[in-house]
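Journal club side-thread
Mid-discussion, someone asked how the predicted structure for our own chain would compare to the paper's figures. Pasting it here so we can look after the session.
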Amino acid sequence: MTEVTIASFNVKNLIGPDKEYYRFQTYTPEEYAWKEGWLADQIVTMNADVIGFQEIFEEEALRDTIARADELGAQSNNAALPDNDKRYRKKAIFQHLAYHDYRDASLAFAPNMHDGGPGSRRPGVAILSRLGFVEEPEIIQALDAPMKIPFQTFGDEAGGHYTIHKLSRPILKVRVPIGGHVTTVFNCHLKSKLGEYIRVEGAEFAPESDLTDYDPVGRALGAARSAMRRMAEAWVLRGAIIAELRQGRPVIVLGDFNDHENAVSSEIISGEVPFKNYEWMLRHDAQSPRDRYSAEEAAQITESIESVRLHSAEKMFVRKSLRDMVYTSAFGGVFESIDQILLSRHFTPDWRGAIGQMSYFSVLNDHENAVSSEIISGEVPFKNYEWMLRHDAQSPRDRYSAQEAAQITENIESVRLHSAEKMFVRKSLRDMVYTSAFGGVFESIDQILLSRHFTPDWRGAIGQMSYFSVLNDHLTDGSHPEAPYNKLASDHGQIMATIEIKEE
């Protein structure tokens, strides 16, 4: 068996010092030195053979960080590995303790075609591989032709369409030789959940971005726009994945999906889960209630779905049923809640105007973090808006006042709904694995997906995942009062899958 490790790492805005990446956002030389050191330490800890990076503004800064990791790794080896004169130097434990540098590794960087000048920078992605690349890396961002997603009304009439010309961030595709096989690896960073608000020509800012004049319906529409874009980007990625799988190529997809593993956008990428049996199902061309699929057709349908389906590395390591204490839906091995009860703050005991409170909750659970559910319930306010740059800022010192911060919080809370389930069971007690912490929600939005070539149950498997790990001790809940000031460490956990490849 050949053992390889695959990792995903959102580094959070990697750029050199004294360079404005977003408006009024820069690193001092001291801040950059700390960030570079922290990122390098994480790379040493992961010690992965292939790493997909997100939020890279400059290739040079990434190369400097990797070089710094090699320095730290060499120091670790000098301290932790025995000299050649020690008779126990060949013990297996020292093979695992050893850091392997990236001096001969290959690095592919995909800059963002939307990248602008100071204050208007847009990040790209990169892949680092100790194993090298086969063929030239490929960047997917500007589409050869606009892709139209048509809609139809319930009366079968034309319902318009959503058109996508370019992706918000590039998708990087490389081919990596792993243990005698060549695997296609995709690194992606899908559109975030931040709302997309339209700025009228001549205006300084979109009206929805003015939190002092809070527009809950407009901001919900902005969230809907973001969700549509994220799902469209997932569809583009899915098409690229299928093109590889149709050629019989093993596929690994990793990156920041900006949504949890059961979100619609994530499921678009991974593919649908087949039913256990299609013989009971009414045929698509049924002429009578007895027209069902035959046993042969059912087997063919299952194989057609399984052959192009991806599998979550996390789920392969931790069964979903061990992570969710309450659920209302069980399908394809996924235990989740798609039934919900949402309450206005009139039923939350912390609000002075409450008319009551929930005393008990029984069996209702998890999909309340889906984008559609969040559009309904409303956004979660920060604990403090005084640190936030104003929507109409003219300088980096233009922040909301204490009075405005209180008003913004009240505007958001007054129209927000609360999950009855979350009021009964804290999310942090339900998820053992998470890469993001925000608003009291601990979830995985960074993922590694594997084609069935890495699932031991398939007869054509070339290997299997033996271990999955998450580095998330550095995460603080984004709603914590101090969290917004910590701009140096990553706001994502790093995930890593160890895969054993069969020898040919």
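Post-session note: The first strand starts at residue 2 and ends at 14.
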